[in-house]
Design goal:
The protein is mainly alpha-helical and 214 residues long. The protein has one domain. α2 packs antiparallel against α3 and α4 packs parallel to α6.
Length: 214
């Protein structure tokens, strides 16, 4: 019941955040974005994240992502770079978490490595002319998030078997949502990027937060 309330609250805050983004009301973004992000941390804590190595690493990743969310509100280039750094550390924490419940490599891991590598190279090729001084930070970030997504396919479900699909959905959703951030920052700034990217991002974080309790 409490978990459901937290998830509904997160959805409500995200809806309010989208309204604030659409209106360009930054003061409301400062209110609703941290609130939405705090919800996925609360869900992990409620789910017992502090009780296992996996949970503690997921919690660390979630907290780092909250920091990244806050940095991105400021819009400045230095704040964006700081946000990238916080998210990159969050991805590394998630990757470490997935290894703590990892199963031996499977065909799913091998296939995901091939697919993810190809897609990331394609995305980098698309972004490269627009990145300017951010080229190498973005390339490194892409490498880190690719490792996270691939590692998610080795995560083992607590009731047996791999991959742990809740983890995979969280990792893949997070990675895909980053495309909306990159497009908004480097290619074309428009509300449409946030309209689909923010709900996907928060759904992905909720999935990862929920994974600690199953």
């Amino acid at each position: 019941m409490i978990a459901s309330i937290i998830i509904v609250a997160c959805a409500a805050f995200v809806s309010a955040l989208l309204f604030a983004e659409h209106r360009g009301a930054q003061y409301l973004q400062w209110l609703f974005k941290p609130a939405a992000s705090a919800a996925f941390v609360a869900l992990a804590l409620y789910g017992g994240a502090l009780g296992t190595d996996y949970g503690r690493l997921i919690l660390a990743g979630l907290v780092l992502c909250v920091a990244g969310d806050i940095f991105l509100i400021a819009k400045a280039k230095t704040a964006f770079l700081a946000g990238m750094g916080a998210f990159a550390l969050g991805h590394l924490a998630y990757t470490a978490a997935f290894f703590t419940i990892g199963a031996p490599p499977t065909m799913a891991v091998a296939i995901s490595a091939l697919v993810v590598s190809g897609l990331v190279l394609r995305i980098l090729h698309w972004l490269w002319p627009h990145l300017g001084a951010f080229r190498y930070p973005v390339a490194l970030y892409c490498l880190i998030i690719s490792a996270m997504v691939i590692a998610s396919f080795s995560a083992q479900n607590p009731i047996g078997g791999a991959p742990y699909w809740l983890v995979v959905c969280g990792a893949v959703g997070f990675a895909v949502s980053d495309i909306s951030v990159a497009r908004d920052q480097f290619v074309k700034q428009e509300f449409f990027n946030r309209l689909w990217g923010l709900p996907l991002y928060y759904a992905a974080q909720i999935a990862l937060a929920a994974s600690v309790s199953l």
